[in-house]
Design a protein that fits this description.
- By secondary structure, this protein is mostly helical.
- It has a domain of 119 residues.
- The protein has 4 helices and no strands.
- Helix 1 packs antiparallel against helix 2, helix 1 packs antiparallel against helix 3 and helix 3 runs antiparallel to helix 4.
- The longest helix has 47 residues.
- It starts with a helix and ends in a 55-residue tail after the last helix.
Length: 173
């Protein structure tokens, strides 16, 4: 197998994996939205028809909130968009190698650059923790040192603080 064929097989494998992940996240996101709509309609419809199934209606009424919260927290839509963006770029690399006659070394270098530039943008479940995603290639954030408190020296007298004057209150009782 030549280097061209090896790189092409690698790109094709990445395209298949990325397409699968993009579709999985997209359809999961859409399923959550549909389940939220159906859950809302079912809860409302159950209460309109009869009061006998209040507990069931209450449980079904939880479904929309649960689905939308899961969709938001798992970042399914953002992940699908990220995978589709990666898929488009991988397809472009494949076309460069197969149809445009770009040198294999250049395509290989561009694929490496693609992986390095896209990886930090992958929506992570912990994006909201500390404000940044935790990933192997994310730069380490420097934390500012806390301010140093200086206390007056023992031989210096601190000015006494006068208690604020408060108006006298009349007892109402």
């Amino acid at each position: 197998m030549s280097n061209d064929q090896t790189l092409l097989a690698d790109i094709d494998a990445s395209i298949r994996q990325t397409r699968f992940a993009a579709r999985r996240n997209y359809f999961s996101s859409q399923l959550m939205f549909v389940a939220a709509i159906i859950g809302s309609a079912a809860a409302g419809g159950t209460m309109l028809v009869t009061d006998e199934y209040r507990v069931l209606a209450g449980v079904v009424a939880l479904v929309p909130g649960l689905c939308l919260t899961l969709n938001k927290e798992l970042k399914l839509t953002a992940r699908a968009n990220w995978y589709y963006q990666k898929l488009q770029r991988l397809r472009g690399l494949r076309r460069q190698l197969v149809f445009e006659g770009v040198a294999i070394e250049r395509v290989s270098r561009r694929m490496s650059e693609l992986e390095i530039t896209l990886e930090p943008g992958m929506p992570s479940l912990d994006d909201d923790v500390g404000g940044e995603a935790l990933s192997p290639s994310a730069p380490v954030r420097q934390v500012a040192s806390p301010p140093v408190l200086t206390l007056p020296a023992a031989n210096q007298s601190a000015a006494p603080h006068a208690a604020p004057s408060q108006p006298a209150r009349a007892n109402a009782g």
